[in-house]
Amino acid sequence: MRGGRSAAEVFDDVGARYEEAFGHVPGQLAALDWLTARLAPGARVLDVGSGTGRPTADVLARAGCAVTGIDVSAHMVDLARARVPQARFEQADVRTYTPAGGGFDAVCSFFPLLVMSQPEVAAALERMASWVAPGGYLVLATVPGDISDLDIVWMGHEVTVSSLSPAEHLRLLGAAGLEVLEHHTALFHPEGAEPEEHFFCHARRPA
């Protein structure tokens, strides 16, 4: 258990409060607009760290995509199934998840990789990139930095977090065969929490 508790336990407790604090991140909503403009109806999309299902799975499902969401928290999965019944959700960990059949037209990863070690973050990026079908997209966001096993208090919970620098994200995605189309950082101030720097990246696997 990192920080004394697993990510699943922390997010079981946070539950719907996560959506209240992080459900309207402007950069994430803009990334979803960017992605839905490029996907055909019926596109297969994987939402990694799907949380309550909002906004990511909800926006994508409303755009006509076939959405699968995975999350380590059983409570989050229950919330998502109730909030976004037109998508399918399962309790799974990106570090061990194996998609059933073929790649995805898009993989979304909005902030799910922080409560793990740096090697696990790097491996998860490589795994997610490998699930992107030719011509498909990977859209991700994280709190960037060369951060290894840092103990913090987040939304009232003690957690141990790690991350990678923007440059290392770009290097790993390129090594995994993806073409980075766009990336930027932005500051976000969630309600009831400290301001965060967010790193957004849009990448594509050549057709």
Automatic annotation (TrEMBL):
Q: What is the lineage of its organism?
A: Bacteria, Bacillati, Actinomycetota, Actinomycetes, Kitasatosporales
Protein name as catalogued: Methyltransferase
Give GO terms: molecular function aspect only. methyltransferase activity
- Alphabetic keyword roster: Methyltransferase, Transferase
One Gene Ontology term of the biological-process aspect is: methylation
Tell me the domain of life: Bacteria
Q: Which Gene3D superfamilies match?
A: Vaccinia Virus protein VP39 (3.40.50.150)
* Any Pfam family matching the protein: Methyltransf_25
Kindly give the InterPro entries that the UniProt entry links to this protein.
Answer: Methyltransf_25, SAM-dependent_MTases_sf
Which residues does the UniProt record annotate as the domain Methyltransferase? 45-136
PANTHER family to which the protein is assigned, alphabetical:
TRANS-ACONITATE 2-METHYLTRANSFERASE, TRANS-ACONITATE 2-METHYLTRANSFERASE-RELATED
